[in-house]
């Protein structure tokens, strides 16, 4: 859904925009090589990842800008949703927030064109992508039953293709235990400043063998209710609010994973996931301190997201190669958001509703080497058939607009990557190619007027990598690659309005692309106690797709021109000499700018012009984490803390020019004994209100106010 296009424009641009919005399996688990507590911090070098699709590789041996977090680390760092995860990634930021179920993220400047069109970050659930055409929203993953998350920064155009031009996030869910019954549970109770009611959540999982050693089932689910903090006023924010603490959020999900291993060479993994996120009113409001939404009339706002997702992965070893077939089907059920809008005289207060549904079928068949020889590679074919429906309705007392857009894509790709170890593995060159062909159609109706458009984009993306391993502890690498995104489809009226303003455009935009050059280093010091990773990157963005406000007030789309981003990513993990104390740090500093903006585009929007910083790209982000564990008798005392620093960023809405730098602080302390754990925690300890994102002066979003709570956990797996 083109939510952001409409939410960012409150006045005439919003109305015009609405009018024309005609808008693997068991062997690939992360492993802890230590024999210590299952909840003890995991050395980054000991985590095994499968992001290269050619077998399991230790994280510190992957010649890419890659991170991995196992489930225990995610819990330790209090990661509950995508916004929490983004804080752990160098160069990542949140580009858009509407409600609890609709967030858009950006890597290294990829959000420069705004939250429109297809995704720029690929989101994978195990072996298959989550997402639909014309939608950048991240999946509202519940992190309780996640085995690990792998994050690849930079274009992944060869292995992950369309939708991964800025990077890829892969969520690996836990497998059943085929030999014994295991279970886990979590209960949490907390209180947020400004909220009258408590927050509470619970989650549980149970795994049991159906046929010992052969067939197992794992079932998990959770319920999370976050109390509302914002008051709602019918008119100006004076007197008694119409509703108090109204924007509460309820999230729930259920998941089942069936794993069958008929023999040592074969595995079949079937997964089903259903989630629902319901919020009364929205995260974006008029004021954050105190939190309130004003001029809502009698409109009861909401944000609703529901979907189910089914996948099946078949893996079979044939001597020196492994054959994998991964299939998924995603069904996003009807949902969307509703909000009251006050546009002043003569229109007054109206109602904006954005909604829709979607479906997505994907199949990938690939073969990869699986022996220990110097030659390693993967090759495969990919197919996608997806459809998304976007609807809008804008209603004022004397004015109304409504319509819908159906976007369809049927695309296929062939891909391959191959590497060879030279000089006993000291030098490893790799090359990869992917050819992609898309058939895309859009069918739009706006106030009864129907417009159809279509495009047939294709692309050849590539990757070249050279890894140098001077010792077992150090690696240097050079990585170059390209990314690609299909063009947005729009109405002829939109295209004509853009062309009349002197900017080349059409009903099908030119696909945007990026080229990334990167050099990196990762290694260990102090007998492995200190691990570091550094990457320097240079990215060129070409034909950036962007929203465009035409001179007649019609919101449309055009390729604005080119941009670039240069920066450095840093990661560090240090098991300090003080036994039990581990320090982690990530950081990014970058310089980004528009380099070749079409003159007419810059004339229409002077905030997008040559030399100006890319939109939705903070100057820096840093995070420091400390964790401490100490045995006390039969128990373990632990404590964690973190500090996050986000730099200044420019926004696409001229009425809120930029987001100022801000900091977030967290801490926890608890005790663990046997399989049980109790933890006292504090989030947003400085009670920062923001804004941390904005779609306009009355659509501000910030972090949840200071929250103090307690968590109880039990875990046998």
From TrEMBL:
Signal peptide start-end: 1-30
PROSITE patterns membership: TONB_DEPENDENT_REC_3
Gene3D superfamilies named in the record: TonB-dependent receptor, beta-barrel domain
Membrane topology: Multi-pass membrane protein
Chain ranges of the TonB-dependent receptor plug domain: 60-168
InterPro entries named in the record: Beta-barrel_TonB, Beta-barrel_TonB_sf, Plug_dom, TonB-dep_rcpt-like
UniProt main location, coarse: membrane
Organism superkingdom: Bacteria
This protein's UniProt keywords: Cell outer membrane, Ion transport, Iron, Iron transport, Membrane, Receptor, Signal, TonB box, Transmembrane, Transmembrane beta strand, Transport
Protein location: Cell outer membrane
Cellular component GO terms held in the UniProt record: cell outer membrane
Residue span(s) of domain TonB-dependent receptor-like beta-barrel: 277-685
GO biological process, one term: iron ion transport
Family of the protein in this entry: Belongs to the TonB-dependent receptor family.
Family annotation (PANTHER family): FERRICHROME IRON RECEPTOR-RELATED, TONB-DEPENDENT OUTER MEMBRANE RECEPTOR
Name assigned to this protein: TonB-dependent receptor
Lineage of producing organism: Bacteria, Pseudomonadati, Pseudomonadota, Alphaproteobacteria, Sphingomonadales
């Amino acid at each position: 859904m083109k939510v952001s296009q409409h939410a960012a424009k409150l006045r005439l641009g919003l109305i015009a925009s609405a009018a024309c919005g005609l808008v693997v399996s068991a062997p690939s688990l992360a492993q802890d090589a230590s024999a210590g507590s299952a909840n003890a911090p995991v050395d980054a070098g000991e985590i095994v990842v499968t992001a290269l699709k050619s077998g399991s590789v230790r994280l510190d041996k992957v010649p890419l800008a890659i991170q991995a977090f196992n489930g225990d680390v995610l819990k330790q760092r209090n990661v509950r949703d995508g916004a929490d995860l983004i804080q752990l990634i160098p160069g990542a930021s949140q580009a858009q927030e509407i409600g609890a179920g609709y967030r858009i993220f950006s890597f290294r400047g990829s959000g420069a064109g705004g939250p429109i069109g297809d995704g720029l970050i690929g989101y994978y659930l195990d072996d298959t992508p989550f997402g639909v055409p014309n939608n950048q929203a991240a999946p509202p993953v519940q992190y309780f039953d996640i085995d690990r998350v792998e994050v690849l920064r930079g274009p992944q155009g060869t292995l992950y293709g369309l939708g991964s031009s800025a990077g890829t996030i892969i969520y690996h869910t836990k497998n059943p235990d085929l030999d014994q019954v295991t279970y886990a549970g979590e209960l949490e109770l907390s209180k947020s400043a400004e909220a009258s009611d408590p927050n509470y959540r619970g989650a549980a999982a149970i795994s049991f063998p159906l046929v010992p050693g052969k067939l197992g089932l794992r079932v998990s689910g959770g319920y999370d209710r976050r109390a509302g903090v914002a008051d709602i006023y019918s008119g100006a924010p004076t007197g008694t609010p119409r509703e108090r603490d109204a924007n509460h959020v309820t999230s729930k999900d259920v998941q089942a994973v069936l794993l069958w291993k008929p023999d040592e060479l074969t595995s079949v993994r079937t997964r089903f996931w259903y989630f629902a996120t319901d919020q009364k009113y929205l995260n974006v409001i008029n004021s954050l301190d105190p939190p309130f939404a004003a001029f809502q009339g009698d409109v009861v706002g909401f944000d609703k997201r529901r979907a189910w997702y089914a996948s099946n992965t078949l893996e079979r070893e044939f001597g020196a190669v492994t054959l994998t077939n991964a299939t998924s089907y995603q069904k996003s059920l009807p949902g969307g958001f509703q909000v009251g809008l006050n546009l002043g005289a003569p229109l007054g207060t109206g109602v904006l509703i954005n909604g829709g549904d979607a479906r997505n079928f994907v199949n990938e068949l690939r073969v990869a080497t699986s022996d220990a020889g110097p030659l390693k590679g993967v090759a495969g074919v990919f197919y996608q058939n997806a459809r998304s429906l976007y609807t809008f309705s804008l209603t004022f007392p004397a004015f109304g607009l409504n319509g819908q857009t159906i976007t369809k894509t049927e695309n296929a790709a062939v891909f391959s990557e191959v590497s060879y170890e030279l000089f006993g593995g000291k030098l490893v060159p790799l090359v990869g190619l992917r050819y992609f062909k898309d058939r895309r159609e859009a069918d739009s109706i706006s106030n009864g007027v129907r417009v159809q458009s279509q495009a047939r984009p294709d692309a050849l993306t590539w990757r070249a990598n050279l890894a140098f391993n001077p010792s077992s502890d150090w690696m240097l690498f050079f990585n170059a690659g390209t990314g690609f995104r299909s063009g947005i489809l729009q109405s002829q009226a939109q295209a004509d309005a853009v062309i009349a303003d002197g900017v080349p455009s059409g009903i099908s935009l030119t696909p945007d692309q990026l080229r990334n050059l990167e050099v990196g280093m990762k290694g260990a010091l102090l007998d492995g106690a200190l691990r570091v990773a550094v990457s320097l990157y240079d990215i060129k963005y070409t034909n950036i797709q962007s929203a465009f406000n035409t001179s007649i007030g019609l919101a449309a789309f055009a390729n604005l021109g080119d941009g670039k981003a240069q920066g450095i990513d840093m990661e560090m993990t240090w098991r300090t000499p003080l036994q039990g104390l581990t320090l982690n740090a990530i950081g990014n500093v970058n310089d980004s700018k528009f380099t070749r903006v079409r003159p007419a585009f810059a004339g229409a929007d002077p905030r997008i012009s040559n030399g100006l910083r890319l939109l939705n790209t903070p100057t820096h982000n840093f995070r420091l984490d400390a964790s401490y564990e100490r045995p006390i008798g039969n128990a373990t005392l632990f404590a964690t803390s973190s500090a996050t620093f986000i730099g200044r960023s420019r926004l696409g809405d001229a009425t809120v020019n930029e987001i100022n730098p801000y900091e977030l602080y967290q801490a926890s302390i608890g005790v663990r004994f046997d399989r049980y754990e109790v933890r006292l925690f504090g989030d947003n300890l400085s009670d920062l209100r923001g804004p941390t994102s904005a779609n306009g002066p009355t659509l501000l979003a910030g972090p949840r106010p200071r929250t103090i709570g307690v968590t109880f956990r039990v875990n046998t797996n």
